[in-house]
Design brief:
single chain, 3 domains, 3-stranded antiparallel β-sheet, 8 helices, 16 strands, 20% strand, elongated
Length: 315
């Protein structure tokens, strides 16, 4: 019998007692590891990252480095608490099957001798998701009391315990918002103009950018919806400014000149026209929502008064 199936069989036998009767699971005892993080032999990228994050949070909380092991390499006689991270034979043997989850659904559940932390890591069409990574963030927040207030060590709040125990848990959650995004730009020359006002250079920004990765993961920034996004009127200044300058937003200097907005790429349309040009409005709207390969492309723009609502296209 393969070792992975031995682990699964052991866990099935251990799952018989009722939920209420479960004894607390010890993950760290007196500052030493009392558990092992177990993944599938070929875990998803989300499960791999989740295992690393869980190891990090438990080390910060309890002072012990919890080993990470694949299920087929885990000794059958191992007595440590098994923390099953992501989809695996062992998790499915306990009745936790992420193929039946909703998009990005997360599940945190205890069994005698085992803790399952798992999430939906793939859409039905094969697009990779990060459900298990989000599940570990939820576990750290709800069970370990972790808070990530802002990027960097100074923003981390991790209650310290020499012994980390987890009581009976059966928690599940499906995100309501399928797209949760905060822009996190990489360094470029345009960004440096803003950094100059902070007195930052590229090295300082890149260091802070790297530190922010934990913050973004912990707050589950991401989503199951994949789309393309752009500025609705990116080329309209070049196309229509000479014929219809009145279509564009009035500037503080009294002109409607949009050339200073990245040469018109970030031009803004006027929203105060009492009777906007119907033909122009139609042309604007036709260009505002368009299909993009692999997902829905949505151009976000200000709505002109009196014009119809921006059309939305379904895939």
């Amino acid at each position: 019998m393969r070792p992975g199936f031995v682990v699964a069989a052991m866990l099935v036998g251990m799952a018989a007692p009722s939920f209420a009767a479960q004894a607390p699971l010890t993950l760290v005892r007196d500052g030493k590891a009392a558990s092992v993080i177990v993944t599938a032999d070929k875990p998803s990228s989300s499960a791999r990252d989740a295992a690393s994050d869980l190891q990090m949070w438990l080390e910060k909380a309890g002072g012990a480095t919890i080993p990470i092991q694949t299920e087929s390499r885990l000794p059958a006689e191992s007595k440590e608490t098994r923390i099953l991270v992501g989809d695996s034979n062992a998790a499915r043997a306990l009745g936790v099957d992420p193929s039946k989850f909703g998009l990005e659904e997360i599940r945190i559940q205890t069994f005698p001798g085992a803790l399952v932390i798992i999430g939906g890591d793939e859409r039905p069409d094969g697009v990779a998701l990060k459900g298990t990574l989000w599940a570990v963030g939820a576990f750290a927040e709800q069970q370990l009391g972790v808070r990530v207030l802002w990027p960097g060590e100074l923003g981390l709040v991790v209650p310290k315990k020499t012994t980390v125990e987890i009581g009976a848990v059966d928690s599940r959650f499906v995100p309501v918002l399928r797209k949760r995004t905060i822009r996190n730009s990489h360094y470029d020359a345009r960004l440096q103009t803003g950094l100059d006002k902070l007195g930052w250079n590229a090295e300082q920004f890149n260091r802070h950018h790297k530190e922010s990765e934990v913050w973004f993961r912990f707050h589950r920034i991401g989503g199951s919806f994949v789309g393309g996004y752009g500025h609705a009127y990116g080329n309209y200044w070049d196309r229509f400014s000479k014929e219809h300058p009145e279509w564009f937003a009035l500037q503080p200097d009294g002109t409607r000149d949009q050339s200073r907005a990245q040469n018109g790429v970030r031009s803004q349309m006027c929203v105060s026209l009492p009777r906007p040009d119907r033909a122009g409005g139609a042309r604007c709207h036709r260009g505002a929502a368009q299909r993009s390969h692999g997902g829905l492309r949505v151009a976000v723009a200000q709505r002109r008064r009196g014009s119809d609502a921006l059309p939305v296209q379904k895939l």
